[in-house]
Each structure stands twice: as structure tokens, then as C-alpha cells.
Amino acid sequence: MANTSDIRNGLCIRYNHDIFKITEFLHVKPGKGPAFVRTKMKSVTTGKVIDNTFSAGHKIEEVRVETHKFQFLYQEGEFYHFMNTEDYTQIRLLEAALDAPQLMKEGEVVTVLINTEDNSPLSVDMPASVVLEVTHTEPGVKGNTATNATKPATVETGAEVNVPLFINEGDKIKIETEKGTYKERVKE
Predict the structure, then answer these.
(1) Domains in the chain, start-ordered, CATH in brackets?
(2) Which ranges carry the Translation elongation factor P/YeiP central domain (predicted)?
(3) Along the chain (188 residues), what's the average pLDDT of each consecutive run of 10 residues?
């Protein structure tokens, strides 16, 4: 059994007969009253995100997990197929278990959290950023760069990202996976 001082991003816990992954947390010590921990948790089975507050010292049931590297193979309906890079076994996961499925291209290597009790995959952690090619965007208007203006662009996975006006079709851009935002243009 763990308690609230062990809460960290990525921790998997059992809560209300389900397994949740902590995505955000904040330790709060108000001037009056006891301390508490405010958390944002994502269900690894349904993908539902809930906010919860634990009082300080509250006991939580930690789920032991292992991490393995998997390569994304292909998508089939709501299922995403992955292959273990060490022993080549394949698994399939529901779209709800993925954090940013719209930014994943075939061949991408991701980290999969696996429950050690029953060897079931819990969730997929994407790399911090991915490099994708812009397949469609409107041309930027010359001279319209005085402000931090952006325009929508479609990348090779089909996701839409707001990019600066100087980005053109065929450019490769780095996208932050956690927020799904443009980071920089990648030169080759």
C-alpha cells in the first residue's frame, strides 16, 4: 500500500474497482485545515478522465507495472496493433488506452505499461515529440508575420495542428505529443 506522498505522474493505482493512471497532481497545504492532493486521473480501461482529491496520508493501492518498447504496426477500426521490439509478440489496444493516437504513424516506437499481475497492457506512452510531414496547408500571405499568426495544417497521420504562416506543404515539423502543438520546423 502506498499513500498520497507517493503520487507522481504516470503512477497507476486501483480506485473505484478500476485502474487509473495519474496524469496531473498538485500537493496543496492550505492555511487552515489539513493538506490534500488534487489529482487528474485517466482510466486505462475506458479512457475517461476524472478529477479527484485525496486527503494527506490517504492510503492508495498501487498497481505494479512494467514498461516495454512496442512498435506501432497499424490501425484497424478502433483497435491499434503493436509489436514488442524484443520478442516480436503482438498486442492490440483500444483507442481509449492511447493518449494521442492521431499523432502516431506506422513504425513509431512507444512505451507500453503492462500490469504485472495479469500481463494485460494498460496504457501507451508516446515519445515527448514526434516529427511528421505536412500534407496540406494553405499558403501563407507574404508580410503577414507581424503577429504570432497561425494557420491549420494537416499532417501525414491525418491530425490537424496549428502552425506558423511560414510552414508549407512537404515541410517536416516537430509536434509536442502531450499538448498536440507545433514545436519547430525540422530541417533535413
Answers:
(1) 2-62 (2.30.30.30), 65-125 (2.40.50.140), 129-186 (2.40.50.140)
(2) 67-122
(3) 83 86 89 90 82 89 87 88 89 80 86 83 82 85 67 87 86 86 82
